[in-house]
Amino acid sequence: MDLAALRKSYERDALDERAADPDPLRQFQHWMQQALSAQLPEPTAMTVATVGADGRPSTRVVLVKGVDSRGLVWYTNYGSRKGRELAGNPFAALQFHWVELERVVRIEGRVERCSEAESDAYFASRPLDSRIGAWASPQSEVIASRAVLVANAAKASARFALNPPRPPHWGGFRLVPERWEFWQGRKSRLHDRLRYRQPAEGDRPGVAGWVMERLAP
């Protein structure tokens, strides 16, 4: 298997400063809508990168469940590795990779917990099996076998029947963006990269309040 010999030329689209929205949230929503319209597999999947107390980074894939002016939201077990790492270091990076569109979006910022009311509302909207699963899985912990999960799910089903409440260890995180980067693949590896960042002293932000910059690929 000669991985070094694999080649792909990216020629599907372009990303120009004059055409990009000055508001990164609107630019992201535009690209997300295109990914949804193209019926890509798992268009809402994003990689979440966190850093532990030992300085080692870790990543995992989750599904974004909300995007608005407050930030990007996903839900998880607060006792999981990512939950523990965010408790100690509340900063993260997100990445969307829409392979078929030859696009990547990266977002960096501070992470906060969603309100209990917001987490309750989303949890209530989930299918019953998913709500039971939130009680059954001690996420990121070592377990003896899959039988442990099955047994935990059976116990939760017997305990809560059709109305399992949201577990106290489960809820939402919201990343409040400080930087966005939009990457569009281009021919000859001369890719387009536009970064939006919050203004620093002496900057002249655009009409949406962000500084847009082109980065070398």
Written overview of the protein:
- With about 220 residues, this protein is an alpha+beta fold.
- It has one domain (about 10-125, about 165-215): Electron Transport, Fmn-binding Protein, Chain A (Pnp Oxidase, Chain A).
- It is built from 5 helices and 9 strands, in the order H-E-E-E-E-H-E-E-H-H-H-E-E-E.
- The chain has helices at about 25-35, 80-90, 115-125, 130-135, 145-160, and strands at about 45-50, 55-65, 65-70, 70-75, 90-100, 105-115, 170-185, 190-195, 210-215.
- Strands 1, 2, 3, 4, 5, 6, 7, 8 and 9 form a 9-stranded antiparallel sheet that branches.
- Strand 3 (about 65-70) and strand 4 form a beta hairpin.
- Helix 4 (about 130-135) crosses helix 5.
- The longest helix has 15 residues, at about 145-160.
- The two termini are about 25 Å apart.
- The mean pLDDT is about 95.
